[in-house]
Amino acid sequence: MKRYIKSAITNIFDEDPEVREQIAKDPRTTAAILVQLADDAHCYVRSYVAENPNTPVDTLKQLACDPSQGVRGSVAMNPNTTDQIFQILANDYDRWVRKMVASHTKDKVLLEKLAQDDDPEIRWSVAYNLNTPADILGGLLYDTDEDTRQQARWSLNDLGYTGD
Question: 100-118 pLDDT, tens per residue?
């Protein structure tokens, strides 16, 4: 492990962004190295930092405000993203970022909010999210989008609701 850390520290300054990407996505990379890479000039490096489960929550909060929608969406995919950070991302202007929140959050309030989003893909993602409670899925049965209604039916069926 010491050899890896020494190599990673040396390579975070490599001119090739692909080398830094490999370090950022490696689950062995330490939090200290990820914090340094969070300020990388290349958005792909920052995206991998945002996805890495070793990235500290304060760094995830910083990356939730990144100029790149890819980085912000990657924050939503990190298993350590907090409800507070999800709240920031749920208000993002970019639909893909909100879709990632709808797909990954466990927060019922955010799921209720996103179930009312203007974008049908986001509402579909709420219906697809395994954490969406039955009452929200029941509301999505009456969505204007046919795919969202179908996904809500399937999700309710998965939860044991048969519609009888």
Answer: 999 999 999 999 999 999 9
**Is the Cα dihedral 28, 33, 36, 37 positive or negative?**
negative
| CB-CB contact of 163 with 153 (8 Å) | yes
Q: How many other C-beta atoms are found inside a 10 Å radius of the C-beta of residue 82?
A: 14
Q: Is 117 left (phi over 0), alpha (psi -120 to 50) or beta?
A: beta
Q: Which of 105, 89, 72, 42 is nearest to 24 (CA)?
A: 42
Q: Are residues 152 and 89 in the same domain?
A: yes
> CB count, 10 Å around CB of 153?
16
| Percent of the chain whose predicted confidence (pLDDT) is above 70 | 92
Considering its fold, how many domains does the chain have in total?
2
Q: How confident is the model over 67-93, as pLDDT tens digits?
A: 999 999 999 999 999 999 999 999 999
Range of the domain at 47: 1-81
Are 2 and 63 in the same domain? Answer: yes
The dihedral over CA atoms of 25, 30, 35, 39, expressed in degrees to the nearest 10, equals -40
